[in-house]
Amino acid sequence: MSSYVGRFAPSPTGPLHFGSLIAALASYLDAKHHDGLWLLRIEDLDPPRELESAPKQIMSQLHACGLHWDQDVLFQHSRLDAYQSYLDTLSTVTYPCICPRSPSAYAGTCRMRTFSQTKTPYAIRLKTHKKPIEIADLFLGKQTFDNDLGDFIIKRKDGLFAYQLAVIIDDVYQKINHVIRGVDLLESTPRQIIIAQQLNLPEPTYGHIRLAVNPSGQKLSKQSHALEIDTSSPLVLLRQALIALGQDTQNRAISVTQLLTSAVRSWDRSLLPQTPFIFTGN
Q1: 94, β-bridge pairs
Q2: Is residue 23 within 8 Å of residue 197, measured between CB atoms?
Q3: What pTM was computed for the model?
Q4: pLDDT score of 178
Q5: What is the secondary structure of 127-144 as a DSSP string?
Q6: Interval 48-55 mean pLDDT
Q7: In whole angstroms, how far apart are CA 88 and each of 93, 150, 199?
Q8: Is 41 in contact with 60 (CB distance < 8 Å)?
Q9: Which CATH code of 3.40.50.720, 3.40.50.620, 3.40.50.2300, 1.20.1440.230 fits the domain covering 1-72+210-282?
């Protein structure tokens, strides 16, 4: 049995759109081509942004496209005690921060602040080092991050665990060793590697695919009003996703199962496009 374990890990903020589908399909094909497992994780860590109906919708859409996961679905809301346990072990390299959130690298204003002296609500930041982070990306090649990220938040001021912490902990818990996802998450990778290094956890192999964008060049997302995928014609939908991934469209296939079986066999990482796919479907 292959040691490859991959995953698709959507946030339940709404149903899948075409950009989500190509990320799911890429991770599925890469896993199955290497005789691996493909897992589904619902990253429901941010209740104010989530829709109660979204997990069921997402799973229904994946099933309609023939993308069936191995093992039980993992919901992150069930893992809060594990995140807290790992966070407790980081006490020597974390500190409370009362500063407002900022999109730029944090300047370290609260770095000398202690938990005992901080009575107002605070976020918890992880101290970062200055060593460059390097990854051998499966699709983009060697990527070097100079680590000018600043100390970043791993638990929010509202008490919710940050994406970066939960993701790497759950990847280890699920024995994920290959993470195939969109290039929009590339900047998250060094943060997750830093956390893994601090916790002495294994680091997955990463592969970041180019995004699907609308004709205006915006990433397909809820913010850009991307519509949910129409699964009434899954063969048409999957062929369009294969085009976006630079793969053979399997035109002789007459069923979803036949198409995916052939697509798994012919999956070729070297064919993945190096530029965004312009999606004109909505």
Answers
A1: 126
A2: no
A3: 0.93
A4: 98
A5: ---SS-EEEEETTTEEEE
A6: 94
A7: 10, 21, 11
A8: no
A9: 3.40.50.620
